[in-house]
Amino acid sequence: xxxxxxxxxxxxxxxxxxxxxxxxxxxxxxxxxxxxxxxxxxxxxxxxxxxxxxxxxxxxxxxxxxxxxxxxxxxxxxxxxxxxxxxxxxxxxxxxxxxxxxxxxxxxxxxxxxxxxxxxxxxxxxxxxxxxxxxxxxxxxxx
Length: 143
Fold this sequence. Notes:
The chain is α/β, with parallel strands linked by helices. It contains four helices and seven strands. It has one domain (3-69, 88-98, 113-142). Helix 1 crosses helix 2 and helix 3 (97-107) runs parallel beside helix 4. The longest helix is centred in the N-terminal third of the chain and has 17 residues, at 17-33. It starts with a strand and ends with a strand.
């Protein structure tokens, strides 16, 4: 068999490094038990859970697939006119870029999403919802 593509979605406010790393380690062992040769970790390049997962995969020697949101790029056809905003630094951005990135990750067809959710994390909730709609199992951990 091949590598199991594992999606990671999580809050920027995620701080429980041991819980996330233990969960990813268990996911790796489950993949081996299911006949995969290892895992490839896919994440959305945000601070918090994504960064923690990235460094865990890097230290462990796994392949990493990154999907950064294109906040400053052009809007998609789903974007309503006049919805762009300016951040604290005065930079113009599309507030729906994270949702487009989440859908791109779901479209990659991972075998599982690990979701590290802190209360109120709307981006993580969006990715969970999209994964479930696509029939992708979600292993949710919370703090």
